[in-house]
Amino acid sequence: MNEIEPPGTYRPQFRFRWRSLVWMLNRFPRLKVVLADRVRHILRRVFEPGMVTTERVIEYPFVFQNLEGTNGLLLDIGGGSSGLAIALASRGFQVVEFDVYPYPYRHPNLLAARGDAMHLPFATGSFGVALAISVIEHIGLGHYGDPLAKHGDLMAVTEITRVLKPGGRTLITVPFGLARIDDFQRVYDPSSLGGLLAPLTIVRVEYAWSKLGLWTPCTETEAVTVDWSGPDRAVAMVVAISPPR
């Protein structure tokens, strides 16, 4: 059974083959307790308590807190490996999930489509809300099999702006800190984030950072100091609207 939550957020994740071992140990309850206690002891020595969390624990609440008043179709870009779209559909939103990969879940309120986020196959003004949660930073780098494009992130934001209704809302989250780029993702600083969001009208930007894996809200001044080449992480969470045409 696939879990809705991303690995390491809401509950422990383990593959099916390990469940078989657990079921076998059910026949030896005392041994199972002893082994479980030893494993917990080892994990506490190896990992800091917060290291098993990802930025999803703060990004997903950010999304739900900013969907009030949503009308019409909601576009979720790049969520092919997450449970956000199915969670939104289950709460009554009419969702279009768009990704380079097929979406694994089905729901009457959800339509899944595949393609290139730099060239969205939707008419201008089709959506009231568009989401891009931890995806823009990857677009155009080819890591996920998408086409290569130096400014693929800006092209995607421009497309999001186009498919939104005038005044339509978009929620975007990206890595934030000391600017850098590699073959996996971009990390934005205030200047590059401003350039990325130029096609939109910014309503609000929130920041959060992770120290030893424990995510908490922070200021821009704090977030911009984070060096993604080390263990710490920070994200910018943007609420913006499509300007009048």
Total number of domains: 2
CATH topology of the largest domain: Rossmann fold
Count of separate DSSP helical elements: 7
State the CATH architecture of the largest domain: 3-Layer(aba) Sandwich
Structural class: alpha/beta
Structural account:
The chain is built from 7 helices and 10 strands. It is about 30% helix and about 25% strand. It folds into 2 domains: about 1-45, no CATH class; about 55-240, Vaccinia Virus protein VP39 (Rossmann fold), CATH 3.40.50. The radius of gyration is 20 Å and the shape is globular. The strands form 2 sheets. It has an 8-stranded mixed beta sheet with strand order 3-2-1-4-5-10-8-9.
Which properties best describe this structure?
245 residues, alpha/beta, Rossmann fold, eight-stranded mixed β-sheet, 7 helices, 10 strands, disordered N terminus
